[in-house]
Amino acid sequence: MPNRQDGQIRCWIRWDKMVDLDRLKEEGIDKLYSDRIAVGTSTCGIAAGALEVLEELKSKSDANIAEVGCLGLCAAEPLVYVQEDGKAALVYRDVKKIEEAEVLGWFYPWEFSPLKVEHPDLEGYKEYPRLVEHPFYRKQVKVVLRNCGIIEPLDISQYVAMGGYRALQKILEMKPWDVIEEVKKSGLRGRGGAGFPTGLKWEIARKNGGEYIICNADEGDPGAYMDRSVLEGDPFSVIEGMTIGAYAIGAKLGFVYIRNEYPLAVKRVEEAIEIARKHGFLGNNIMGTDFSFDIHVAKGAGAFVCGEETALIASIEGYIGEPRVRPPYPAEKGLWGKPTVINNVETWANISPIILNGWEFFASLGTEKSKGTKVFSLVGRVKNTGLIEVPMGISLREVVEEIGMAENVKAVQTGGPTGGCIPRALMDVAVDYEKLTELGSIMGSGGLVVMDESTCMVDVAKYFLEFSKIESCGKCVPCRLGLTEMVDLIEKITQGKGSLSDIEKLEKLADIVANASLCGLGKTAPNPLLTTLRYFRQEYEEHIEGRCPAGVCRALVRYRIIEDKCTGCGLCKLNCPAEAIDEVDEVYKIDPEKCISCGSCFSVCKFEAVERW
Amino acid sequence: MKMKIEVDGNDYEVDGEKRLLDVLLELGFEIPHLCYHKAIGSYGACRLCLVEIEENGWRIVASCSTQVKDGMKIRTNSDRIQELRRGVIELLANHTSSEIVEKLASSYGLEVKGDKKCVLCGLCVNVCSVMGVSAIAFESRGIDRKVNAPFGVPTDFCAGCLACTNVCPTGAIRFENGKLMVGPRVLSEHRFLRCERCGKEVVTERLYGMLSIKEVLCEDCKKRMQAEKFVLGKLY
């Protein structure tokens, strides 16, 4: 076998290991466009009851029933779509009872994918709306999520039918440096949050003699589930991306680091790796060439800080998951001291469309410095919660108000627990790494939490600071002690015991934690505090004066029953967990001694007789 | 290789391929540091050795984890550095108390309010791994982080070499009555072998097992034996 050298073109040497992509494609097309009923059974679907629907369908119908990934619109889960009689797929929403299901719209299975794929002619529906015209889908451009919800996640033939593994076939005839050049030109930047140019990272690793590839699937942000959905809905796209990366940098071994809280994703990826190996897309002599590469799954125990690349590497090595000093960066000295490329799930899933459609396709999407698309999980006070993929440069307002159909937005939090809150007035900002940083937030891995008037911004800052404090590994002094002191101070403010000097102290501590900490967690942890202070300072001052305008901070809120409005129905008494409400002269009264200010009575009263003050 | 660097406006010529902190300390700059030891390498936990270097504008780095580069410009004492250093020392002073923290705090006019001695610099854990023993480690995370033996059970892997107590900057890890302790926690218990001549406690049982010595002799008895050999020409 010839030695691997730079610039050498791979020869096809193992005919017995060669893969017949066309045969797989034919098989996949048959399966994809045959009559079938597809049920979205990602974790989001299962939570909404998709498994019961699946059971019911199986018992009632003898049709071909497929389990697919997530179509994105979590608000309407369980989603079920039907393909029959040469017609396009018809999607039903909220399928709790099969007979009562409502139609959401119809779509062609290939229309979300940017790849040119062979497909039969299907007939659309005239009586139902098209899915691409639904407000949730209208502005979306799917690159990463191209197959999610369309293919059966573990059927490699369907993946190939949707254009899969063509990119790998293409690069095996290219020189590794050309692959790196292609990725560099595309302008793809790391989707884990920091936005380091992916091509440049690969180049550094190749120059140092790249040894390992890691896929970072340790997604721990509250309310974020992009990586999980991709791994559950389309694991092969990540595996193919990693294989291409391995070829480009010369790696022989790869790891997918998934948190153990994602049991379905772990299972799907493990099975997908096994299937890819069986078909000759992984292991020795990939697709009959002398290129060999394999992937292992490493399970994380659930520490948020293990999403930081050096902590992740320490965790794979079997050490305590705590960050190490950088430089040297992993691309120079990573796993077991060897050059390692570590990228996020979303980054890896972007690779094959870039290779297949060319860098020009990718670079045509997005803004000057931020190319391509970004996947967000849109959660919080929006009508259309779900997983979305939008081109970079789209404004936050479009995302939140048009796609999410949110009303009365107060602020949007981007970038997970260490991101910042952007107020409604600044929501016209473009989704772009630099623009978000200017506002004091970060792009992050893609959590988008929408808040409305019922949200207390001080409480939000407290929640995220507490999260960072709990998840801090405790290695460096500023993060360990600084965050602890910050949480104590903000707790004091939400108790109504704070003073203006506490705000100053908080700002000073935030500066120290942000600038003196060792890793990205500490460096970004004060962001929620700093942005809420910057845009909602008035709320902090009101808390110091003893008022919580949103009525969230319990210590500052009292409830009383207006006697004139009380009808004596007793609903409040039934719902009070503290037994603080009693009947006095046919109306009800709250005992302030016993009241824990939970607000149950306030929210259940139908006559607006409970007043918050 | 000689390199030219500029520190606080003055030019110096130094040996390259070294850590910035080592170079600055050799040049006589006072850079406080708790978690760095030359023999162990950088760990980057105490964040006291922060300096500013020029790299597309002034950037704050920990000098223990930065390599010297030719033409590097460094500020060790700017207002910004003083501000951050003071902040970190204040945090330490609020939560810990030891001689070295008291000294650092008093130089910034701060009061020590903490009670624990350990600053979690990691030197004991790291030196234990450098010694090839790795008997102790960190437990828990965040504010609950502490140095402990695995599962909180006194470990049999500790040889009792006491490298940890020697590198500890605060005296938090200590060896008392045959017990290696941090705060109230016992990390390891030891039995001593006594000097064959005078009966004084000399070496822990486990360390004796690791060393290739045959006789157990205390320092004084060794000297005495050597002298007897020299004077009398015979060995007991």
Query: What overall geometry of chain A do the principal axes of the alpha carbons give?
Result: globular
Q: Topology as H/E string of chain B?
A: EEHEEEHHHEEHEEEEEHH
**CATH topological fold name of the largest domain in chain B:** Ubiquitin-like (UB roll)
CATH architectural category of the largest domain in chain B: Roll
Overall mean pLDDT of chain B stands at 89
Distance between the termini of chain A: 80 Å
- Give the amount of beta strand of chain B, in percent: 15-25%
Radius of gyration of chain A: 26 Å
The CATH homology group name of the largest domain in chain A: NADH-ubiquinone oxidoreductase 51kDa subunit
What's this model, at a glance?
Chain A is α/β, with parallel strands linked by helices and 613 residues long.
Tell me about this structure.
The complex is a heterodimer of chains A (613) and B (236). Chain A is of the alpha/beta class and 613 residues long. Chain A has five domains: 33-138, Glutaredoxin (3-Layer(aba) Sandwich); 189-350, NADH-ubiquinone oxidoreductase 51kDa subunit (Rossmann fold); 373-452, Ubiquitin-like (UB roll) (Roll); 457-544, de novo design (two linked rop proteins) (Up-down Bundle); 558-612, Alpha-Beta Plaits. Chain A has 24 helices and 18 strands. In chain A, strands 2-1-3-4-5 form a five-stranded mixed β-sheet, with helices on one face. Chain A has a five-stranded mixed β-sheet with strand order 11-10-14-12-13. In chain A, helix 10 packs across helix 13 (345-357) and helix 18 runs antiparallel to helix 19 (500-516). Chain B is of the alpha+beta class and 236 residues long. Chain B is built from seven helices and twelve strands. Chain B has helices spanning 20-26, 79-95, 99-107, 123-130, 163-167, 205-210, 219-232; strands spanning 2-7, 10-15, 50-54, 58-62, 73-75, 137-139, 146-148, 173-176, 179-182, 185-189, 192-194, 201-204. In chain B, the strands form four sheets. Chain B has a five-stranded mixed β-sheet with strand order 2-1-5-3-4, with helices on both faces. In chain B, strands 8-9-10 form a three-stranded antiparallel β-sheet, with no helix packed on it. In chain B, helix 2 (79-95) packs across helix 3. Chain B is globular. The model of chain B has no long low-confidence stretch (mean pLDDT 89). At the A-B interface, helix 17, helix 18 and helix 19 of A face helix 2 of B.
